Amino acid sequence: MNRRNLLCVMILGALLPVMATRAVAQNNELVADIPFNFTVCTQQMPAGKYRVRPLTSATTNVLLVHSEDNQSAELACTHDVQSTGPTSGGKLIFNRYGNQYFLSELWFPGETTGHELSKSEREQAIIKELPPKMKRGRVTVKVTESKPN
User: Fold this and answer.
1) Which letter, b or e, does each residue of 96-125 get, where b requires 16 or more Cβ atoms within 10 Å of its Cβ?
2) DSSP state of 111
3) Dist CA 145 CA 148 (whole Å)
4) DSSP 3-state assignment of 141?
């Protein structure tokens, strides 16, 4: 486990007891139809409709990504990434290596600060072993719904 993931686990361990004792309203929620299987941190997620929201208003860099049917869910620790201007609509950005997709960034509508996920050990290993001819790129999925909670 790399240091950033260990730090995230330690922070979550410290916050979970506090969150269990009081409910905190979330800032925003994104909804997107993701047409391919993908990975969030270490969790494999099937294609489908997903909701993304900050875990709490106090910890906006810890996001909950879950399928609409609640069959798949993962917490993702993120760090801020800046854009030159506000985004017109919400979006999720994935790193693509061949037919494997990894959630990389999330942007809420109208924001100049997005959320970037660290590359997992698995994603880093794929990058190292990537054959020169393998398709690599970034795929953007537009948010179908965005709402304040």
Assistant:
1) bbeebbbbbbbbbeeeeebbbbbbbeebee
2) -
3) 10
4) strand
Q: Cα-flanking dihedrals φ and ψ of residue 62, to 5°? A: -115, 115
For residues 20 and 37, give the distance between their C-alpha atoms in angstroms, rounded to a whole number.
31
Tell me the three state secondary structure of residue 135.
coil
CA nearest to 92, candidates 45, 26, 135, 125: 45
**What is the tens place of the pLDDT at every residue in 63-90?**
999 999 989 999 999 999 999 888 888 9
pTM, two decimals, is 0.78
What confidence tens digit (pLDDT) does each residue in 109-130 have?
Answer: 989 999 999 999 999 999 998 8
